[in-house]
Amino acid sequence: MSILIVGEKPSVSRAISAVVGASSAHKGYTEGNGYIVSWCVGHLVGLKFPNDYGNGWEQKWSFSQLPMIPDSWLFHVTDSTKAQYDLLKNLMNKDEVTEIICATDADREGECIFRYVYNMARCRKPVKRLWVSSLEESAIRKALSIMKPMSAYDNLFNAGYARARADWLVGMNGSRLFSVRYGGKLNIGRVQTPTLAMIVQRDTEVNGFVKQKYFTADLNCGAFTLSSARIDDEKSADALVSACDGCTVTISSVKREVKTDKAPKLYDLTTLQREANKAFGYTAQQTLDYTQSLYEGKLVTYPRTDSQYLSDDMAQTAFDVAKLCDTYFGFGISHIPDIKKVINNSKVSGHHAIIPTSGISTADLSSLPTGEKNILTLIATKLICATAPAHKYEAVKLTGICNGTEFTATGRTVLDMGWKAYAKQTDKKNDEKSLPAVSEGQTFTAAASKGEHFTSPPKPYTEDTLLSAMERAGNEDYDEETEKKGLGTPATRAATIESLVKNGYVERVGKQLRATDRGKELVKVVPDEVKSAKLTAEWESKLQQIEHGSLPEAVFMSGIQHFIADMCRKYGSVDKSASLSDGGNEPVGKCPKCGADVVKGKFGWYCKGKCGMNIVKVYGVSLSDAQVKGLLDGKSTSYTSKGKKTIVCPEIVENPYNGKMYYQWKTERGK
């Protein structure tokens, strides 16, 4: 008899295999000591696309198809990983396998990855859940000893499954609805479109900003300078400067106050992504990839977390790891790490904050790739800073009177560097100089001058500031104690940004994220409810409620379905008042299958009628622009590949494959 363990990736499963003694390697799994350990490769099974349902949804897009709300949801096996699915299905249903352990990533998506396969394989064997935040041997052994039945995580699966169906309903219906309404292909996403709307809004504010000039009267008192309040009128500023130049300034007030900057919290994924972008220019996806690799290398804990605290059972581990960080990263700390600062059970739900593991003591850290080394250093630094003393300083504010007008100066003197002695980044806004010892009633002779200043424009989004905005979306409606809201989750925000870039709605300009003309057009034509950050944040809040068992998923899904049905009724007609530019390209011909215009998009030439005609590649070879234009004009073309000549004719033929009908150019292949 054997126990089957299913991980999410081969690398994770190898770590588990080493712990349980499954050392005999086979294609797609390992075996030994009463265990079989295999893995998924991401999503092996997913929701079917509309074209696979029938119902007329496979036809040319039209309003009559909408809303598309399946009576029952159908799944399909991903073509590229079908072999691994078949292997898992056979292992799950193997007679000798009496029990299964789900060891996919311990989050919503990991739960769905396993259960989709389990359900598709029609397996009914008992399942236990391995919930682990570190791939160290000790952590895996502990997790194996305290496993719960899969049913204990039903709410987690319900939330993930509801999220997948909501994304399908909003994305599939919204994309077809507004593409038909405006006569151009649009990609609508439940999280993607509101995120794009925020970028477009910020770009509008940046581009429309008109800087304003203002002035101050500045009094040089030798060792320090006092400044007036903002003055908008230059003549008034000149008059004040003239009135004060060479006059006596009397110090009317000296306020000194000792202040502290508390140590920062540990990293959750979003905060790590933000600071890595700020420090190294890494995209959110790059940071996630580097951190995932470190996790699989047993050097950091699980990355896809939204907590910045540890649970109390980790106190000793965290203390030991902090001392290891000091040793192996050379911080030279002079304090005893105060672990109590980072412990809060109430702020840890699925996973605790990201910290290094004890694996850093045995790994060759110098051999790590640069990206991983930088991320590991950030995580180690954050643990040192978070458990260090507070930063203390004396804040000073001087107020002086000259000719009846108040002038002020501020400064600070550091009393104890505290955690900032170890921080890799400094806070420039707090980089004030210290002021000399001055007492009330003391007088100085002022040398007055006029200071010229300009109002600052809002800054375009970077991945740092966009991630922060996504995290905060909708938060103004909740108090501080409410669980985090926002657009998406820490695990999905990077993919959302990458999707916007891939689809041509956003482009990276250095560190900046700027909306393209295509992105601006989409936001311009879709209605407010589709691009509402607040609405999407409310949906995310409800998904969290499903996860915690306080909201039935059926109630959430009913609300999404009503939203889609109302949207399709409201916008189910052609709107000629707005048009899409198709990237600024004019049609170059008519599709030989349906007669619709053919234009050039980001990934090649395509038919605006969406009839399924492939007008770009022939046997995997991309045709040139001139060849495509010639075919659309009724002229044959040809190319030679691997010693064979292929003649491409302007007629089209049907090509049934894998249960679907494809359309392509008629070809004649020579020897």
Question: Could you walk me through the main structural features you see in this protein, from its secondary elements to its overall organization?
Answer:
Helices cover 34% and strands 22% of the residues. It has 17 helices and 26 strands. A seven-stranded mixed beta sheet has the order 2-3-4-1-7-8-9, with helices on both faces. Strands 14-13-12-15 form a four-stranded antiparallel beta sheet, with no helix packed on it. α3 packs across α5 and α5 runs antiparallel to α15 (533-547). Mean pLDDT is 89; it is low at 478-482.
Which helices and strands, and how do they pair?
Elements: E1 2-7, H1 10-20, E2 24-26, E3 29-32, E4 35-39, E5 45-47, E6 75-77, H2 82-92, E7 97-103, H3 108-120, E8 127-129, H4 137-145, E9 148-149, H5 154-182, H6 192-207, E10 213-220, E11 225-227, H7 234-244, E12 248-261, H8 269-280, H9 284-296, H10 315-329, H11 370-386, E13 391-402, E14 405-416, E15 443-445, E16 447-454, H12 463-472, H13 493-502, E17 506-509, E18 512-515, H14 517-525, H15 533-547, H16 553-570, E19 589-590, E20 597-601, E21 604-607, E22 617-618, E23 621-622, H17 625-632, E24 637-641, E25 644-657, E26 660-669
